[in-house]
Amino acid sequence: MSFYESLMTLERLPFKELWKGYGAEDVRRALAKEKLDEEDLLALLSPAAGPHLEEMAQKAQRITRSHFGHVVQLFTPMYVADYCVNHCTYCSFSSIYDFPRKKLTLEEVEKEAAAIASTGLRHILLLTGESRRDSPVGYVKDCVKVLRKYFSSISIEVNPLSAEEYQELAHAGVDGLTLFQEVYDRETYAKLHVKGPKRNFRARLDAPERGCQAGFRSVNIGALLGLHDWRQEAFMAAMHARYLQDRYPSCEISLSPPRFRPYLGSFNPESDVTDRALVQIILAYRLFLPRSGITLSTREPAEFRDRLVHLGVTKMSAGVSTEVGGHTGDGGTPQFEISDSRSVPEIRDMLYRSGLQPVFKDWDILAESSIR
Amino acid sequence: MKDALHIGGKALSSRLFIGTGKYSRNTLIPEVVEASGSEVITVALRRVDPSSREENVLNHIPPHMTLLPNTSGARTAEEAVRIARLARAAGMGNWVKIEVINDQRYLLPDNLETIRATEILAAEGFVVLPYMSPDLSAALRLRDAGAAAVMPLGAPIGSNRGLRTKELIGILIEETGLPIIVDAGIGRPSEAAEAMEMGAAAVLLNTAIATARDPLGMAEAFRGAVAAGRQAYLAGLGAVRQEAEASSPLTGFLSV
Fold it and tell me: Which residues pair with B97 in a beta bridge?
């Protein structure tokens, strides 16, 4: 049993009719409940919830403050390699693009780590392009060894790995896994992933579960919003998160709602995810999964991020570069264009002004060799 | 010091323990400490960054406070033990609140792992205060393992639901012979007073104060409630009866 079986059942739902079928009463009923089920989630993502965003926001904020208080955890992604063997139609790292690829040496990793750590951040998300050949597990592990000197929590966002490989990395000190399914709709997935191992939908879908089994403390998933009908994608991502929560109660499951951003190519998304839509998604996530982390990336513009921090968000990236070596060297080709280029102190000050507390450190790596 | 609470060789005059999480800024902490009159403050070691001058929560804790580092984030006894040792090595003293939580949805403690961690840390000389689900057998095992007090939950962390486990906490107060510190769930001063009236040794709060509109006002309200509840307990509450009892008995003449 994996989420794949659940997904095969869920994808048979007549979404188009479903969205039309929900009314204000369904939304109010969902809002009145403490523990929401699948039907409630559908109602909150349906067009009927559109006029109720304010009520949803009030409740989402209450829940968030009660469970998480006024704190927002900060982290930044660190790109160490942009070699990729896949051809995905929406990503600059796609193998079809011809640009000088980069992979940091361990010395460069150290330099980059020191620069990021000097901003006060203690949580890092290590990213590579998806290439087992160019950025194999051994390389990731070597990078982690370096990063441990500077950070108290290390997450990875790399190509899907086996449970054993994840376990190896957990023992090396990695405590979090981020892996986006990108698209939950299988037909669209097949269309957008033209070439490479990423075409294997199921291998990717089951990877977060392998991460839970391997003992990562946190697993962050999501759909890249804009590649298919956003209501359906948000529904599937939330159901995936609940599936993992139900089976792996000791793992903290978080959701990210990234929206499609301009990149090197010219692909234009099918589904336009408006600001209102994104707000609806975040609120539905919070109401459906009250204790889940919700991560907000710099794909969103600064002014919009400043508003979203009150609606359920618990983690934010800050001081971001999506280029390999972008914090110290000349950088490379960005994976996508970011919208909020503010520095760590600027994000920190914004949070304080908003009545929130930035948290730079929220864990200590406890993997065997880390006892200091 | 009259009616002091003795734990780990310390005599505490305040029976209100507070937390450091969930505040909008760490600079509120000294003000809350003062308003609450608290002498014990819990800190999640995972949030402590000694290398950061600005964001280090420890820099905001007044020196007279007894630090109660907690093992928040631990999923196993081993992790809790490692966190406790790190806290002591970092100069945070030898008190520790054991939190071992394997359930990220309700954040309910794992009593078995908590007992294991308590056994190890009490033997190493820590003053161990374990956070637990109120269960008598587990509380007695924690006592036998060397816990200095036990901290049963009133309701899930951050829920502000009050004393949902009141009956079970009452049993722990009666049967364990240990100080019982009600931790988690208390959302209102009246609930803190109720716990104290029952004979709890102290209460620990965070969310109710940190997320109040006016945290300082709420800290003061809890200070009063805890003191009132304790005073009522010491004064001896009147018996609860099913029927009314006339204050001028009708058969009083018989005793004349």
Answer: B70, B129
Q: Residue B65: count other Cβ atoms within 10 Å of its Cβ.
A: 16
| Residues from B in contact with A at Cβ < 8 Å | 21-26, 45-49, 52, 54-55, 73, 75, 79, 82-83, 85-86, 101-107, 158-160, 207, 210-211
d(CA A234, CA A205): 15
H or E segment to which residue A182 belongs: strand A176-182
Query: Are A363 and B55 inside 8 Å of each other by CB?
Result: no
Contacts of B253 (CB under 8 A, 6+ apart): none
In this structure, are residues A101 and A82 in contact, taking their beta carbons and an 8 Å threshold? Answer: yes
Q: Which residues of A touch B23 (CB under 8 A)?
A: 69-71, 357
Distance CA B37, CA B19 (A): 13
Whether A368 has a pLDDT exceeding 70, the answer reads: no
Does residue A141 carry a pLDDT above 60?
yes
Place of tokens 């510190």: B181
Least confident of A197-211, B42-56, B62-76: B42-56
Q: What are phi and psi of B204, to 5 degrees?
A: -115, 130
| Residue bearing tokens 């001896």 | B236
Which sign, positive or negative, has the C-alpha torsion B68, B74, B79, B80? positive
Burial call A21-59: b when 16+ CB within 10 Å, e when fewer = ebeeebbeebbeeeebeeebbbbbbbebbeebeeebbeb
Separation of alpha carbons B105 and B101, rounded Å: 10
Q: Is A105 exposed, middle or buried (0-12, 13-18, 19+ CB in 10 A)?
A: exposed
Query: Residue A69 and residue B82: Cβ atoms within 8 Å?
Result: no
d(CA A64, CA A311): 8
Active site residue B2: no
Q: How far is A178 from chain B, CA to nearest CA, in Å?
A: 18
Active-site entry in B10, B22, B97, B166: B97
Is pLDDT of A370 > 60? no
